[in-house]
Design goal:
alpha+beta, elongated, six-stranded antiparallel β-barrel, 314 residues, two-stranded antiparallel sheet, Lipocalin
Amino acid sequence: MNIEKNKIVFGTILALIVIFIGAYTMTLLHKNDDTYIDSQQIPIPELENETEVYNSKLDAINALKDVRETNAPSIYDDRLLDSTGVYDPNLLDKEKIRIVDSIYNQGRINYTENDYRSLKPTKSIEIPIKLTIDSVLPEIAQTISAEQLGLEHQLFFAAAPVINDTFGDSKNDLIIYAAVNGDQIVKTFSRLEMRLTKPAFINNELLPKNTYLYGFVSFKPNRTLIHITNINHKPVKLIAYDLQDGNEGIYVINNFQSEASKAVVDDAIDEINIPSVPSIGVLKKVFQRSNKNVKVTITNNYQLLLKPKASTIN
């Protein structure tokens, strides 16, 4: 029984294989017949949808479907497209200017009195004047015009501005900001190096920040005076003021007074005949000697204000 069952199973499998091979062969042969093209005949494509035939024109018109035009949205604003279709981002501003210019050219607005002008020309009204009045009018007009000219002449010279002769007609800043450039030890007639801390107009020329300036030093009690007479080979007259107290010169502490009193006492002891009246020559020599020998240290970045010399006169 087992042998017969095996034979039946084997025969069934073999039959299925033969049937599959036969079916596959038939499929290939049928496919080759469909793809075969006769060289003597031009192939014509098959129409999937045949054209519908209508009995009358009315039926054909009723069968038409409405086809709406679909345009892609524009990437530009339609208000910014001119008549030729060219995109102009300033088109609205140009249109406003054109409207304003057209109104102004028509003369419809009086910009000085903020009212509208009349487009109709005003008619001149002629008033008859007697000959006696006509003979007097020219004389009145001449006297009025002469008085007006005289008044305008006086007002012109009365309103004339006062010109600062320090720099002539050149443009200059009234206050110039500067600072001492580095620690410096100076004495009388020494040169002090400074620099601008802000741009400034001097002699009608804009000098940039950190431009070097040079001034000459002199002394008076507790003040170091600085005068600037030349910048970039151009003559000027500037005086340095202390930014802290606003007074002329830099504040320093010196011993002019103590040295002068000591010299006067010594001279009074030597000249016993006039003990109460010190010699004027001694005082003069003391101040001259002290002024020449004194030395002052000015620290770096000491803030100063430079002003024209003429502004110091009240």
